[in-house]
Specification:
This protein is mostly helical. The protein is built from 16 helices and 2 strands. The chain is globular and about 55 Å long.
């Protein structure tokens, strides 16, 4: 397929990849340090939950970032978790509610992420690429879901993947905060220009995308119907390409992809 024609295809809305805050089933909630405590109301106080989250060996640096960049969101999260625990909710219910709260919070920050300054948006690209590349090697189904939705619910990520999940999540929270406090004021177009679309496609080809992959990527419903392994692979090509574009082009392309997917 001609690259310029595929650039026009992209403008029809077939670029569907998104990014949300990466949501993790954190060790602090799985272990439920306070869940079986005899002094239930002291152990399940919001401030106690926050303290446990921040010092958690797996996800602590993520919640420390939230405390710094979005303290009100973290306070509301711990308040809701405290109420659920005091009401006697099951662990499965707490896990589901924690996931849904953070997912919705992340989705609400899309407008801020796309206006993040270059340094923060570049870190989003870097961590997304690293995470997808590692997922492709270890869990294609999870890789495909992340490539298509930008959000994952992880019960037991492998050791190689866990730090990358945290890195991607932290990058997104920091980008949202930077876009809120120091917005780049990008005028984000609704459709892809021919040259910009062709530049992205060429970068994806350099990353390894085949002609068949391109046909799938450029078709309005190609990605939704593609097998998981191809969704995953194209996700890797996309974020690798975005990370390789010139700074201003990379930022605008990233902002367009995130905006179109949400």
């Amino acid at each position: 397929m001609d690259d310029h024609r595929s650039g026009r295809s992209a403008s029809r809305g077939s670029v569907i990849f998104g990014i949300s805050i990466v949501v993790l089933l954190i060790a602090a909630l799985i272990g439920a340090f306070w869940w079986q405590a005899a002094e239930k109301h002291r152990r399940t106080a919001p401030e106690t939950i926050e303290a446990e989250l921040v010092k958690d060996p797996f996800a602590g640096r993520l919640f420390a970032t939230m405390k710094q960049t979005h303290p009100k969101d973290l306070a509301e999260f711990t308040r809701r978790m405290s109420k659920l625990m005091r009401d006697g909710s099951s662990l499965d219910h707490i896990r589901t509610e924690s996931y849904e709260f953070l997912r919705k919070t992340g989705e609400g920050q899309v407008a801020q992420i796309v206006q993040a300054p270059h340094a923060e948006l570049a870190e989003v690209r870097k961590t997304q690429k690293a995470l997808l590349t590692e997922l492709e090697s270890h869990d294609v189904m999870l890789c495909a879901r992340f490539a298509m939705t930008g959000s994952v619910f992880v019960n037991s990520a492998q050791n190689e993947i866990r730090p990358l999940l945290i890195d991607a999540s932290i990058a997104a929270w920091k980008a949202a905060a930077a876009g809120r406090d120091r917005p780049a004021k990008r005028a984000i177009p609704k459709t892809w220009g021919q040259d910009d679309g062709a530049m992205l496609i060429e970068a994806m080809r350099k990353a390894g995308m085949s002609d068949v992959d391109l046909q799938v990527f450029a078709s309005p419903y190609g990605m939704q119907s593609a097998p998981a392994w191809r969704q995953c692979a194209i996700g890797v090509y996309l974020w690798t390409a975005l990370d390789a574009l010139p700074a201003d082009k990379a930022d605008m392309a990233t902002a367009m992809i995130i905006t179109q997917a949400n």
